[in-house]
Amino acid sequence: MTELRFLLNDTEISLSEVGASDTLLDFLRISRRLTGTKEGCAEGDCGACTVMVGRLTPVGLIYEPVNACIRFVASCHACHVVTIEHLRGQDGKLHPVQQAMVDHHGSQCGFCTPGFVMALYGLWMTNPDPTMTEVETALQGNLCRCTGYEPIVRAAFAATRAGGQAADALNTERENVASRLAGMRGRVDVARDGRNRAIVPADVDDLAEVMLAQDKPTLVAGATDVGLWVTKFLRNISPAVFIGHLMKDIAVDDQEIRIGAGVTYSEAAPVIAEHFPEVDSYWHRIGGWQVRNMGTVGGNIANGSPIGESPPLLIALGARIVLRRGAERREIPLESYFIEYGKQDRKPGEFLETIIIPRRGDALIAAYKISKRRDADISAVAAGFRITVAHDIITRAHVAFGGMAGIPKRAAHAEAALVGAPFARQSFEAAARAVAEDFQPLSDWRASAEYRRTVAANFFRRFWLEHAGGALPVRLPRAAGE
């Protein structure tokens, strides 16, 4: 097809002139004059640009809050984009979420308010009885300088008490919207001025053909990284191949968990929570809700960032990856994919297709992250732990770090200090000292080298305290009942 097609509120959009780097936010504000969606940061950090995007999945049509500032128009093919202008209550009244924000004084200057309303709309749609933690999680990706957040949290609970989900337009029109989106599917190849080219493959086999045919294409899955290449660095990403709708399969058997590279953090979250519950809170600190709804596990690996937050955990868990080129596939350990800063073991025309995680067995597992802001912030240091103990002796130790080197990397000296040692405080103290031999971290605006070395050592002490069975709690409790 030579036209990109999607639904915008209640209007069908068909575009033949679309550039690879055209953002959804610019399209909404400039081309359609839907100015309720704001630009605050242009990097997916503040949430002022939040819109809802509905997409077809194996379980039906789902809607999720996403950041329009780093979402590309081409990624919206066969989707339903919903802006704040589309919200409406019954009989011409305000939507329950909007009314709750008014009643509880959730807005002051008002600039961030549309983004908060859309995030709360997503929560209201999917969770009729949220806990405080779930409300806070839904608002991770939205920043406000005025309200202090408490009025907005009160509005979240008030909106859910008001109910009305069954009568909401996105529910009453769901079957019709799903049918219309299904009719839009197919491969799309469009460009602006004949140069700024965007390709949306029909399926994974089509993607394999496209990758062989194009010269140095830019793969765009969730765009949570590539979006900043455009908005902050003005990079040319053409030809861009948009794959966020592909490789969504998750399969679990007695031996392993297979996750398609296109699975988002939000889609993977239930599997992580079921099989690795110790790292559930870590998983929910990867970006804000909007970022987790867009960002993919495969994309976080493939771009090779030294501060990517899923690779340290996945390396510690012993993950493998499947790389595909045409019809050929090869499987390698995840840790060997990262060669050096900016260099990965991926051939021209090759792409990451699947992540394979062994089942946990009887290992002790943990993941930690230190960042300037607790939520929705990039880590200064991240770590994954998988420790196996038999008869009070540590028999295996896999510990991987991000933010400590030019690539995500295992701590070989620290692991050696643990293996064969008793499961005791002194063993983890030895590992805390040994980790200094594994890394020579850099100083940057996130943290100094000395701070990173200190944090890395303290992670070993934290692991021991959490698993030693002491009477005193290691983590501060959250709200009552959480």
Automatic annotation (TrEMBL):
InterPro entries: 2Fe-2S-bd, 2Fe-2S-bd_dom_sf, 2Fe-2S_ferredoxin-like_sf, 2Fe-2S_ferredoxin-type, 2Fe2S_fd_BS, Ald_Oxase/xanthine_DH-like, Beta-grasp_dom_sf, CO_DH_flav_C. One of its GO terms (molecular function) is xanthine dehydrogenase activity. SMART domains: CO_deh_flav_C. Keywords: FAD, Flavoprotein, Iron, Metal-binding, Oxidoreductase. It comes from the Bacteria. Residues 2-87 form the 2Fe-2S ferredoxin-type domain. The keyword Metal-binding applies. Transmembrane segments: none annotated. Its EC number is 1.17.1.4. It is an enzyme of class 1 (oxidoreductase). The keyword Metal-binding applies. Residues 191-362 form the FAD-binding PCMH-type domain. This is Xanthine dehydrogenase small subunit. It comes from Paracoccus pacificus.
